[in-house]
């Protein structure tokens, strides 16, 4: 039987996943590559110019 993940560990995992996603999106923006996202029930493709820059408050060292 699986034991529940402790709340602190779960929060750390969520933060790590969000940071990884933000870095991947930023990499696409810098390389001039588009991304597809789910928005308002539809798949929308954003060009690199439409991707907002990574927020400077996100840690880049982790």
- Largest sheet geometry: 2 strands, antiparallel
Give me the secondary-structure category: alpha+beta
Main sheet: which strands, in order across?
Answer: 1-2
Give the strand content: 15-25%
Nearest-angstrom radius of gyration?
Answer: 15 Å
Order of helical and strand elements: HEE
Layout of helices and strands:
Blueprint: H1 7-31, E1 35-39, E2 42-46
How would you portray this structure in words?
- The chain is α+β, with helices and mostly antiparallel strands and 62 residues long.
- 40% of the residues lie in helices and 16% in strands.
- Strands 1-2 form a two-stranded antiparallel ribbon.
- The longest helix is centred in the N-terminal third of the chain and has 25 residues, at 7-31.
- It starts with 6 loop residues before the first helix and ends in a 16-residue tail after the last strand.
Compact overview of the structure:
With 62 residues, this protein is of the alpha+beta class. It contains 1 helix and 2 strands. The longest helix has 25 residues, at 7-31.
Could you name the key traits of this structure?
62 residues; alpha+beta; 1 helix; elongated
